[in-house]
Design goal:
The chain is mainly beta. About 5% of the residues lie in helices and about 55% in strands. It has helices at about 70-75, 235; strands at about 10-20, 25, 30, 35-45, 45-55, 55-60, 80-85, 90-100, 105-115, 115-120, 125-130, 130-140, 160-170, 175, 180-195, 215-225, 245-260, 265-275, 280-285, 290-295, 300-310, 310-315, 320, 325-330. It has a 24-stranded antiparallel beta sheet that branches.
């Protein structure tokens, strides 16, 4: 890939910053108070992004001090870190909307946290202090969706695309890396995924204790997802080519999904991983503790139960591959390993 991953990022217009209180600046660090809002429009690899950040206080630090009346130091000013923080009531709020070249919405990402620190250096990093939440609306290829079977079927006017919604809550922290294009959450992470009918529709994990058909939840201690690093830029730049992505969940993982034809499938594991190009959810146990997966048919009958140190389930076909330690199969043909 390119040496500087931000080289393709260009400001479509100058960022606009408003604040309602005071501003202090000592030549290197500025503090704005009274409610701060930053609106910016950037273009990254021909894709326009509209962003808005709000917080009660904002601080930005320069790498080295500047003299306000010295044009040479002003021209050489480099931002070291931008921080947004809550003072009392409202959490920090960041919204980023990705548009297509035809100016249609392609994705929306919203993150809230108690504090967000953004560092442009090293390719760009963002660190959030919890508790907080993330919501995502993403147009994805139906074959790349984490949703199973009919839940990933598309509407005629969308072609092969499906609008997938995510709601995630976290207790401790969030870290984003623009260079590796990854986002990681830690501490009591709860995630819910389902297909959305429109951009106005949204996922609410609090309403998904009882799963409707087509819904999926995952609880864990750490969740990371991002763009698959092995995909060459020239492949990802092909118009209409779905971007391959992957996900890893670790620590007390509990997965539940309610499918139309196979019923409720539940699993517990030490670690799970998924790659969109393969459709296989890999489920791992820990030392001395096997992973466990069970099925309940839509009519309430018990289905399969598997215990294994490692198993894989194809979320499109529900084919299993496993090193079986214990298996209890009720009226289900045993999947054949390759």
């Amino acid at each position: 890939g390119p040496e500087n991953p931000l080289a393709s990022v260009q400001w479509a217009s100058a960022p606009h910053c408003r604040w309602g209180g005071g501003m202090q600046f000592d030549g290197q660090v500025a503090l704005m108070t009274g409610g701060v809002q930053i609106d910016a429009e950037v273009v990254n690899a021909d894709s326009p992004w509209l962003t808005r950040m709000t917080g009660e206080e904002m601080q930005f630090a320069l790498k080295s001090p500047i003299q306000l009346l010295d044009r040479s130091t002003l021209a050489a000013a480099e931002i070291k870190q931008i921080s947004l923080a809550r003072a009392k009531s409202e959490p920090v709020y960041v919204r980023a909307e990705q548009r297509t070249s035809a100016d249609e919405t392609n994705a929306i990402h919203i993150i809230t946290a108690n504090r967000l620190d953004c560092s442009p250096g090293g390719g760009g990093e963002i660190f959030g202090t919890g508790p907080g939440w993330y919501r995502g609306w993403m147009m994805t290829d139906s074959n790349s969706s984490l949703l199973a079977g009919k839940a990933a079927e598309t509407r005629p006017h969308l072609g092969s695309k499906v609008l997938q919604g995510v709601h995630l809550t976290f207790r401790e922290s969030m870290r984003g890396d623009l260079d590796s294009e990854t986002l990681a959450f830690t501490g009591g992470v709860r995630t819910a995924v389902r297909k959305l009918d429109s951009w106005e529709d949204s996922v609410d994990i609090a309403q998904m204790e009882r799963l409707d058909v087509g819904e999926m939840t995952m609880d864990c201690e750490r969740l990371q997802f991002g763009i698959s690093p092995s995909v060459p830029d020239r492949i990802r730049e092909i118009p209409g080519m779905p971007t391959p992505w992957e996900m890893t969940a670790e620590g007390g993982v509990v997965v539940r999904t309610n499918t139309e034809t196979r019923g409720l499938i539940e699993g517990t594991a030490a670690r799970t991983s998924f790659e969109s190009t393969k459709s296989w959810l890999v489920i791992d146990g820990a030392a001395g503790q096997t992973a466990f997966v069970r099925q309940t048919w839509p009519d309430g009958r018990a289905g399969f139960q598997y215990r294994s140190s490692r198993m894989a389930i194809n979320i499109k076909t529900f084919e299993f591959q496993t090193v079986m330690h214990e298996a209890q199969i009720n009226n289900v043909p045993t999947p054949q390993s390759e």
